[in-house]
Amino acid sequence: MRKQNYLIGVMSLFVLQACGNQSETGTTDESVAAETVETDVADTSEVTEGAREMSQPNDCPVIASRDWQAWINAMPGPDAVRSLNVTGEIDLPTPGYEIEVIAGAADRSAIPTQRIILKATPPSGMVTQVVTPETVTYSGPVIAQQYRSIMVLCGDQMIAEITDIPVAQ
User: Fold this and answer.
1) In a domain? residue 6
2) Separation CA 91–CA 138 (nearest Å)
3) Does residue 164 sit in the same domain as residue 111?
4) Residues 25, 15: contact at Cβ < 8 Å?
5) Is the same domain home to 49 and 79?
6) Residue 58: its pLDDT value, please?
7) Are residues 34 and 90 in the same domain?
8) pLDDT digits (tens, 9 = 90+) for 4-28
9) DSSP string computed for the chain
């Protein structure tokens, strides 16, 4: 909005100054002002396109991650169901991200590697630019008696691989 008001003010000055004046090339100062405005509008669209590129779904906002653990809950009891549990902590660039944690594909070996996928949705509007730690948890069905590893993925990158996966009985 400020840029638009600035452009209107600049155009007004050119128009007032150019009242009847013509440059030596035969063009009015108004046409020069119009060219300036068109250039500024083109620059704005480039900035908007750059912002769109940064918000692609393959981007991962995670700055750092730590303290990843995984275990299989096989505690006995009535109606007990075995579950895979994964927990860890990530650092995000701002508060307000919505983190969705889903089970991805597992390989088809007898002792599989399970992929856990983090999908981060940035906050809308303006937010404070401060590194924000978030705890991430996943609990879902077990597809094997044990796992070789758990890979935690965010965007196109693996942010953690857990190889010690005990069974709690």
Assistant:
1) yes
2) 17
3) yes
4) no
5) no
6) 60
7) no
8) 454 455 445 444 455 554 444 444 4
9) -HHHHHHHHHHHHHHHHTTT-B-TTS-BHHHHHHHHHHHHHHHHHHHHHHHHHHT-TT-----EEEEEEEEEE---STT---EEEEEEEEEESSTT-EEEEEEEEE--SSSPEEEEEEEEEPPSS------EEEEEEEEEE--SSS-SEEEEEETTEEEEEE----EE-
Q: Residue holding tokens 């900035």?
A: 47
59, part of any domain: no
The C-alpha angle 59, 64, 69, rounded to 5 degrees, equals: 110
- Of the pLDDT bands very low, low, confident and very high (cuts 50, 70, 90), residue 39 is very low
- Catalogue the long-range contacts made by 42-45 (C-beta closer than 8 Å, 24 or more residues apart): 44/3
Domain range enclosing 110: 64-168
**45 and 88 share a domain?**
no
Q: Is 59 exposed, middle or buried (0-12, 13-18, 19+ CB in 10 A)?
A: middle
136 and 85 inside one domain? yes
- Do 153 and 73 lie in a common domain? yes
**d(C-alpha 5, C-alpha 62), whole Å:** 37
Residues 6+ apart with CB under 8 A from 158: 151, 152
Number of independent structural domains in the chain: 2
Domain match, 115 and 147 both: yes
